[in-house]
Design goal:
By secondary structure, the chain is an alpha/beta fold. It is built from 13 helices and twelve strands. The chain has two domains: 241 residues, Aspartate Aminotransferase, domain 2 (3-Layer(aba) Sandwich); 134 residues, Alpha-Beta Complex (Aspartate Aminotransferase, domain 1), CATH 3.90.1150.10. It has a seven-stranded mixed β-sheet with strand order 1-7-6-5-4-2-3, with helices on both faces. Bound molecules: pyridoxal-5'-phosphate (PLP).
Length: 380
């Protein structure tokens, strides 16, 4: 089956007991045992739940992995992943990261002595040099949050494996509709399902997808041992989101392009970051490894912080809020909101200035979004 059919049918059989076409929500924390350890495959809701299992099977299929695991949040998934990398492990991570990911990495450095090196992974020579020493985990985001840098997945996966590391990719921005890291050799895919997979800004959730059976077993054990699992109701909502992921990502992409074209070359704009623009330095790479450019655009206003705040204040369709990937358009000021936990010097070193604004382009009419941005810019 092709991808858009798999979104709706992969690992999502009609419920055998009733014929329900949607996975029923099994709100039961525990399951009867006929005799001690004689059960129907379900024991306790943290260890496994039938609604969650349908979601996990669907996620594994969509990412092309062996095992899918659902979590209570993206950071819950990351915290569980990091359980596998104890003190003295070495992580080589991309430098432009979701703020909360970096905060948790730094916590593991301070608390457990995990070694972490941040590298601009657009520069393969820098990646090669960082991976001359052995590493345990290579951690990639592409496109990155908020600067929409693109990492050459095939090249970095190869370098990571040569250094003895497992390679994890946060695929939250692209989603499997646009990019499937396991097809490029990645071992682990991480998601904040809060974003595009859920797609409606109504749940917090996360996921890991593991390519190898052994990793699947290990992380399923950790999922149960750590316990950061989602509710069956939230699993149902992510499944419902998956059904429309294909058409939503197409619509998000059209919106982002309309917005990026207003920003590109505008006199009040210093720089636009959108991998779909021919002027994006890695447009060709994005074209090669993705099936679309996604719904995120970030823009650096020429007037710095003052202009950014004015612009934010004048937008009418875009709502000022953290998060992204929902049907409604959202706007964020990374330096004071999503990325405020990164010290200013580190923030500026990677290019997150006070004039930077991140736009999550929703699936409203692209003409309304373009108009909103045009009008807000005129007063910025
Ligand atoms: C939001 C986000 C996360 C964290 O996920 P939560 O569901 O908020 O815990 C991780 N990575 C990226 C790229 C994100 O956008």
């Amino acid at each position: 089956m092709r991808f858009n059919t798999r979104l709706i049918h992969a690992a999502q059989p009609v419920d055998p007991s009733t014929g329900a076409v949607n996975a029923p929500i099994y709100l039961s924390s525990t399951f009867r045992q006929r005799a001690p350890n004689r059960n129907q495959g379900w024991v306790y809701g943290r260890s496994g739940n039938p609604t969650r299992a349908v979601l996990e099977g669907a996620l594994a299929s969509l990412e092309g992995g062996r095992t899918g695991l659902a979590f209570a949040s993206g950071l819950g998934a990351l915290a569980t992943l990091l359980e596998e990398f104890p003190s003295a492990s070495r992580i080589v991570s991309i430098d432009d990261l979701y703020g909360g990911t970096r905060r948790l990495f730094e916590h593991h450095r301070a608390q457990f002595g995990v070694r972490i090196d941040y590298v601009d992974m657009r520069d393969l020579a820098a990646v090669r040099s960082a991976l001359e020493a052995p590493a345990d985990l290579v951690y990639i985001e592409t496109p990155t949050n908020p600067l929409l840098k693109i990492v050459d997945l095939r090249a970095v996966v190869r370098l990571g494996h040569r250094a003895g590391a497992r390679v994890a990719v946060d695929n939250t921005f692209a989603t499997p509709a646009l990019q499937r890291p396991i097809e490029f050799g990645a071992d682990i895919v991480l998601h904040s399902t809060t974003k595009y997979l859920g797609g409606h800004s109504d749940i917090i959730g996360g996921a890991l997808v593991l390519a190898a059976r052994k990793d699947g077993e290990r992380f399923a054990w950790l999922q149960n041992a750590v316990g950061a699992v989602p509710s069956p109701f939230d699993c149902f909502l992510v499944l419902r989101g998956l059904h429309t992921l294909g058409i939503r990502m197409r619509a998000h992409g059209e919106s982002a392009r309309a917005v990026a074209e207003v920003l590109d070359g505008h006199p009040k704009v210093a720089r636009v970051h959108f991998p779909g623009l021919a002027s994006h330095p890695q447009h060709a790479l994005a074209h090669r490894q993705m099936a679309g450019y996604g719904g995120m655009v970030s823009v650096e206003l020429a007037g710095g912080r003052r202009a950014a705040l004015k612009f934010l204040g004048r937008l009418k369709v875009f709502t000022l809020a953290e998060s992204l990937g929902g049907v409604e358009s959202l706007v964020d000021h990374p330096a004071s909101m999503t990325h405020a936990s990164i010290p200013r010097a580190a923030r500026e070193a990677i290019g997150i200035s006070d004039g930077l604004v991140r736009l999550s382009c929703g699936i409203e009419d692209p003409a309304d979004l373009a108009e909103d941005v045009r009008v807000a810019l005129s007063g910025a």
